[in-house]
Amino acid sequence: MSAHTRALLMLLAVSAIWGFASPVIKITFPYFPPALFLTYRFAITILLLIPLTLYLEPKTLHQLKELSPNEAFLLFLSGFLGSTVQLGLLFWGLDLTTTLDGSVINATSPVFVAIAGIYFLKEKVTSRELLGLIVSFIGTLVIVIQPLLEGQKLFSGSVLGNFLVLAGTVSWVGYVVITKKQLKHKITPLVLTTNMFVVGFITMSIILFYLNTPSQITAYFQNASLTAHACVVYMAYISGALAYFLYQKAQKLIEVSEANIVLYLAPVFTIPLSYFWLGERITLPFAIGSLIIVAGVVLSEFRTARSHHVS
Prior knowledge:
Order of helices and strands: HHHHHHHHHHHHHHH
Number of domains: 1
């Protein structure tokens, strides 16, 4: 199996994991509000990642000490953008809107990432990849405007919530571009992932204690169900540590613009849980849009896979 194929399989797994994440997040909000949810998630994630990083990569601390002030700042900034900013905006947005609206808006990230990859990283996008990107984006638009097609308002959820999700999507671009540069300086995917969650835990903890008293936080934990705790564990270890590690690993093998096209598939995986867990209605426009997204991804990746096979 070629490195390119392995990267695509890893990204497909990430797309499925993050597609399942939106409904998981939504059903947990009655027990853990966004700031507490994220701080809790970051805390149990770093309990695994810090010992794992020090064990598998014992030279990590020495390598971090050798970073220049500018590189250290970029490493912190990437962690902050990828955790507290991006995930914070996503969680607060999902608290106000539907998972289906939120997931498809979040799926527009490949468009922004592709533009950033071309502008900041000087990456090249072939005409077939660009066509696949456009087709997938059209599919996303079909899903986003489905309420309008059904005679409803443009967004079935809160406009503010959708705006927050979109803002989080844009901040994700900064995380991708900076970490791509850091990878070129041989900072490993595991270290980047661990850094993101450590920075996230520290910065989100400040927000948590600004918004809540210790007694309020204790009450949330006491009243939370086992299902809510299980959801946080999923978000910490599967949607968090595993998915971000696979994403960084795959990004090291292919260009960021190509890597993010596959992430258009996330809303397709969101559908089953949104329907069965949350009772959100799956409409014909949503189904059509999802099929268009899949077509765009296949269109782009088929060309890439074939060209890599020939070479």
